[in-house]
């Protein structure tokens, strides 16, 4: 087994329940923790045997560009797409999406949602 982490990806997106968030947008960070069987890639030194983290990043980037009201929905969409693409390699995945400086009436760095999914 192996763990692939893609940390502190930054995106500007239009997620939020308030109309202003959907119009103005906000900054978000995403962290991904992907558990996969890395033994073939470790032996072969061939990208075809690996869970390609460039592809994982592109999946996350694509899903972050689709506006959603809830961060929970964004996380679930990302997880679903990762498992659809890496169905034979991915054992479990955790996605954390954080909205920086959310407009909820107090001073804070961020608010985040984290979801984990396991292969079925």
Element layout with pairings:
Layout: E1 2-13, H1 19-24, E2 26-36, H2 39-44, H3 53-64, H4 71-85, E3 90-100, E4 110-118
Helix pairs in contact: 3-4
Walk me through the structure.
With 120 residues, the protein is α+β, with helices and mostly antiparallel strands. Helix 3 (53-64) packs antiparallel against helix 4 (71-85). The protein has a single domain (2-118), classed as GTP cyclohydrolase I, C-terminal domain/NADPH-dependent 7-cyano-7-deazaguanine reductase, N-terminal domain (GTP Cyclohydrolase I, domain 2). The model has no long low-confidence stretch (mean pLDDT 95). The protein contains four helices and four strands; from the N terminus they run E-H-E-H-H-H-E-E.
Give a brief rundown of this model.
By secondary structure, this protein is α+β, with helices and mostly antiparallel strands. 32% of the residues lie in helices and 36% in strands. Helix 3 runs antiparallel to helix 4.
